[in-house]
């Protein structure tokens, strides 16, 4: 507190709203209009309209569901600042400086009705605002100030400084450093997340100097951020060194990948992005979704199954579904201790008719029922309170899916792990098994996503793979436990079991990946090519280097994994080269999704593969190698006709 003056600062009203006010909390405070008022003056001045005071948050408290900020002013005078926002958390933190507009003095402090009247600033900003030594009529000095702020990552203040230069030069009709200041200001805007505004500033630069390469590159980055890879690509290709400069090459690759991704009709990436960028992702946000073509009918396999009544292209999102029931965290997963689970389901059935209806629609181990009977049966059971636990147990046994429960990514990259769990997903439970399925599914937390893995014909049955056939015995036992006959075509693996031996190494990798909590645990495999490591070192932050060195996905291994998975899953998800709907990144996502299915390292893997992919593709560009070949080797889709 030592260098804070013993005043309360009041700032008179501003004539114009600051341009960035809606998005950034920091208001534009015209330094020249600041007026220092001491406490006495403030206390006497009852009419505080259109004035501001500046205070610091000392403590945050709750009283009668109203949040109070205990603040102090510069004289260490305590004030209760009442924010009349019932049951609402405000964003301020201890030690934040607040600028309070229109404060109303009351006995115990300041009373604020509208939280819009409070703006938080940090101490640095405050001090900078207090610093009036800058000569505002010296553009060079202002620009230098901007540069200093930029270095300190105080983009907001840097923005202000560059703006002053621009304003000054406009007023004086000079153009000495305007081009640079627009360019630098664009960078501030970019950092502050005002991408379109940055594009506008860069347009100013390019009007002044169409050859400004820095501006061209920056604008391309903006377009990439705005998910406009075509314009980004055009700009980058206009640069004279776009075939030799590594940075530009990599950016061009990113454009290409994004163009491919955006042309796909299933947007898995943004779905994933949605959930990694949230503060705390809530799966609740998604509504259940079921493709309109899906209907339930009698299946040739026995019992009922799901069918589509129109042709469905590969990559179509078919189902997004919350579990109708899931095992609670404290409930054990052991086969013999599930009575409480079944009892809970029974209670839920008595209490919730819709749930009961769904439940009794599920296969219960007896294949000889009709939906009509089921309906009568469940109504009878509910009415007479005779829903027997054995039946529920059976329903659960034949229909439950295991999933790795709820990983929550927070903004600061923390991952909260919870346990593995099981649950019932209504739609998926109606799908029969095949070794050559036409859909695949995965979980985002407990949210089930089902996507078509092939083009599905009209009236074709939807089939899913219940168990990955990694081991013949296990696979067959699993089918047996599901009452699935082993002699039908749909479940036979033929001679492919022989491939097992050959791919032992890959199996170990997959297993390691699956059981590791983080990529840092994966120390067994290292990248063999020192040149690649060097390239990565130059190009990417330590984080990636660590990952890359510790996991085994060099070219060779990716290729082998792809080969292996193609065979083992009979091309279900991994025939990258036959995936017309999906762009290369999506193919990789699918690859990752299964290899690390539901595991906590999914996101890291995504980053990792994406980066390595770009890097290697870029390398090929530089060496004038056939990049399409390389992509194919990497497991990306082969683009050749
Ligand atoms: C989750 S249910 C699937 C829907 C079920 N067919 C129904 O009528 O509601 C699982 C049961 O379906 C039957 N099933 C699934 N796939 C099968 C297949 N390929 N051949 C024969 N029966 C199958 C088995 O009885 C299995 O236990």
Report a brief summary of the structure.
The protein has 641 residues and is α+β, with helices and mostly antiparallel strands. The strands form seven sheets. It has a seven-stranded mixed beta sheet. It is flat, with a radius of gyration of 31 Å.
Sheet-strand content, in percent, reads 15-25%
Q: Radius of gyration from the CA trace?
A: 31 Å
- Strand sequence of the main sheet, in spatial order? 7-8-5-4-3-6-9
> Which parts are unreliable, with pLDDT below 50 for 5 consecutive residues or more?
1-39, 85-89, 123-132, 264-282, 404-419, 498-503, 516-529, 539-641
Let me know the largest β-sheet: 7 strands, mixed
What is the name of the CATH superfamily of the domain at 139-263?
Tetratricopeptide repeat domain
Helix content: 40-55%
Overall outline: flat
What ligand species are in this complex?
S-adenosylmethionine
Distance between the termini: 70 Å
The CATH class label of the domain at 139-263 is: Mainly Alpha
How confident overall, as mean pLDDT? 63
CATH topology label of the domain at 139-263: Serine Threonine Protein Phosphatase 5, Tetratricopeptide repeat
Secondary-structure content class: alpha+beta
Strands, count? 22
Count of discrete alpha- or pi-helical segments spanning 4 or more residues: 23
Q: Based on the coordinates given, report the CATH architecture of the domain at 139-263.
A: Alpha Horseshoe
Protein name: SET domain-containing protein
InterPro entries: SET-MYND_domain_protein (IPR052097), SET_dom (IPR001214), SET_dom_sf (IPR046341), TPR-like_helical_dom_sf (IPR011990), TPR_rpt (IPR019734)
Domain SET: 292-467
TPR repeats: 179-212
């Amino acid at each position: 507190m030592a260098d804070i003056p013993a005043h309360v600062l009041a700032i008179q009203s501003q004539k114009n709203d600051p341009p960035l006010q809606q998005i950034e909390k920091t208001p534009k405070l015209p330094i020249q209009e600041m007026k220092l008022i001491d406490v006495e003056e403030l206390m006497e001045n009852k009419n505080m309209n259109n004035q501001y005071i500046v205070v610091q948050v000392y403590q945050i408290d709750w009283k009668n569901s109203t949040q109070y900020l205990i603040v102090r002013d510069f004289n260490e005078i305590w004030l209760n600042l009442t924010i009349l926002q019932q049951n609402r958390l405000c964003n301020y933190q201890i030690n934040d400086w607040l600028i309070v507009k229109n404060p109303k003095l009351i006995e115990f402090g300041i009373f604020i009705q509208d939280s819009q009247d409070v703006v938080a600033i940090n101490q640095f900003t405050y001090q900078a605002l207090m610093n009036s030594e800058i000569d505002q009529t010296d553009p060079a000095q202002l620009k230098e100030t901007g540069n200093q702020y930029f270095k300190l990552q105080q983009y907001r203040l840097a923005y202000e400084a560059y703006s002053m230069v621009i304003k000054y030069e406009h007023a004086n009709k000079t153009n000495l450093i305007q081009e640079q200041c627009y360019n630098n200001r664009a960078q501030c805007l970019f950092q502050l997340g005002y991408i379109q505004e940055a594009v506008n500033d860069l347009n100013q630069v390019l009007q002044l100097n169409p050859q400004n390469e820095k501006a061209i590159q920056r604008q391309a980055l903006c377009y990439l951020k705005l998910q406009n890879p075509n314009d980004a690509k055009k700009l980058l290709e206009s640069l004279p060194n776009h075939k030799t400069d590594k940075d530009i090459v990599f950016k061009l690759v990113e454009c290409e990948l994004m163009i491919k991704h955006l042309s796909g009709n299933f947007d898995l990436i943004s779905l994933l992005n949605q959930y990694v960028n949230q503060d705390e992702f809530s799966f609740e946000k998604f509504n259940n979704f079921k493709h309109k073509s899906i209907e339930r009918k009698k299946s040739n396999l026995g019992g009922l199954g799901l069918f589509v009544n129109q042709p469905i292209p590969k990559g179509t999102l078919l189902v997004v579904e919350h579990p109708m029931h899931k095992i609670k965290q404290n409930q054990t997963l052991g086969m013999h201790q599930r009575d409480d689970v079944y009892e809970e389901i029974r209670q839920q059935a008595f209490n919730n008719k819709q749930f009961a209806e769904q439940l009794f629609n599920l296969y219960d181990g007896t294949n000889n029922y009709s939906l009509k009977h089921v309906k009568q049966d469940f109504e009878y059971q509910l009415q007479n309170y005779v829903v027997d636990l054995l039946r529920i147990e059976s329903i659960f046994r034949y229909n439950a899916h295991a999933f790795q429960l709820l990983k929550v990514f927070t903004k600061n990259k923390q991952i909260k792990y919870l346990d593995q769990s099981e649950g019932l997903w209504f739609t998926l439970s109606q799908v029969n098994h095949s070794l050559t399925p036409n859909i695949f599914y995965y979980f985002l937390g407990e949210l089930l996503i089902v996507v078509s893995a092939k083009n599905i014909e009209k009236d074709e049955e939807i089939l899913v793979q219940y168990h990955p056939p990694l081991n013949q015995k296990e696979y067959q036992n699993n089918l047996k436990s599901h009452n699935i006959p082993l002699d039908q075509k749909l479940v036979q693996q033929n001679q492919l079991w022989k491939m097992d031996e050959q791919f032992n190494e890959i199996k170990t990798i997959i297993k390691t990946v699956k059981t590791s909590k983080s990529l840092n645990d994966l120390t067994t495999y290292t990248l063999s090519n020192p040149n690649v490591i060097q390239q990565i070192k130059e190009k990417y932050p330590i984080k990636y280097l660590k990952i890359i060195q510790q996991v085994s996905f060099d070219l060779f291994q990716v290729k082998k994994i792809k080969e292996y998975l193609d065979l083992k899953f009979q091309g279900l998800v991994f025939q990258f080269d036959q995936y017309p709907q999906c762009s290369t990144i999506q193919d990789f996502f699918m690859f990752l999704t299964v290899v690390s299915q539901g595991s906590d390292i999914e996101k890291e893997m995504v980053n990792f593969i994406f980066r390595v992919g770009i890097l290697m593709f870029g390398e090929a560009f530089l060496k004038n190698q056939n990049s399409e070949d390389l992509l194919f080797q990497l497991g990306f889709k082969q683009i050749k006709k």
